[in-house]
């Protein structure tokens, strides 16, 4: 199919000239702000940075093992030098090619402040052959960088741009307890020790991995609950189970008072989520593999998902995450974003949660939860002069302009695999 290029208008449509009021003698005309005078900051340069950290000890989950941590950062620079940073969750090499060869040439010279206009420019440009997948992941990093840039230009945080903050602090749940290459009895002991360490650090909630094999999963669930009887817990299988297995593990999770069952089924079988929920009382959470409001509409309309989990570095960026949240809200479903990667995505998720209304609303509202990955990652822990501050399991919502975190570009150099740059 022919792909027709589409670009947003570069100049406003003609407007009618308002009638001039006759002023009393001695009164002077004051100039009111015009929409045409809102800041315009054209994009001068787009860079991408593929970063990699080699792990001392690999760790895994139901699908594979990690021996490195990778990320793709997007840096967008406006004509006046204002810079925005974003992050894409997924295959860095592919994202880098998509941004540098496809999206960046279409964005150079455009108004960086027009985040929604530019999102739809990218969407329309690749719609015929990429309604989702890696192209949307690439768009997500660009969109996040544009929100960061816009906030810096206006002197406002991203949560303020999203409509304001309901909270200034957000309780975190520690994500960890991944699998390691050791005998299963030793692994369960190691996981329990790790969970205890998060309790000692002040976390009130944590999320374990399941999906290794059913006997192991059941022993792990029971062991960790016995060790930490008062800890709020969730479990994530990373779409490891078929429907009968998910029912079996879900019932074990219910017996051990887990708060939600995450990605119990393959994202390809949307109808099974309702079948599973009809058999269980534990809430079903999913969505990290889903993208766009259209994808979430299909997923949530089954009625089998109680917690939607878009990742802002994958679902379409902050622009699309807001639309996903509105869609979920219209169905009475709350959003707890998936968050994996570095401080850029963590900051974006923090602002998103802080600006979100929790359905159905009440005076003593339940606290939202922020996912805080605790697996080893120097890209997250060593490359920021100003990070998201997390103490005693509580994240402070950044108050600085944009995302509110500051990258140390000098320290980036030792982790850089490849950098690209395109200028207007």
Q: Could you characterize the architecture of this molecule?
A:
It contains 13 helices and 16 strands. The protein is an alpha/beta fold. Strands 4, 5, 6, 7, 8, 9, 10, 11, 13 and 14 form a ten-stranded mixed sheet that branches. A hairpin with a 2-residue loop joins strand 13 (390-391) and strand 14 (394-396). Helix 6 (214-227) packs parallel to helix 7 (243-255). Residues 27-39 have a biased composition (Polar residues). This is Mandelate racemase/muconate lactonizing enzyme family protein. InterPro entries: DgoD-like, Enolase-like_C_sf, Enolase-like_N, Enolase_C-like, Mandel_Rmase/mucon_lact_enz_CS, Mandelate_racemase_C, Mandelate_racemase_N_dom.
Number of strands: 16
The shape is globular
Give me the CATH architecture of the largest domain, please: Alpha-Beta Barrel
Largest sheet: 10 strands, mixed
Overall average residue pLDDT: 92
Strand content: 15-25%
CATH topology of the largest domain: TIM Barrel
Unreliable parts: 1-37
Alpha-beta content class: alpha/beta
CATH C-level of the largest domain: Alpha Beta
CATH homologous superfamily title of the largest domain: Enolase-like C-terminal domain
Order of helices and strands: EEEHHHHEHEHEHEHEHEHEHEHEEEEHE
Task: Characterize the quaternary organization of these chains.
Answer: single chain
Estimate the helix proportion, in percent: 25-40%
Computed over alpha carbons, the radius of gyration is 23 Å
Q: What's the number of domains?
A: 2
The number of helical runs is 13
Euclidean distance between termini CA atoms: 29 Å
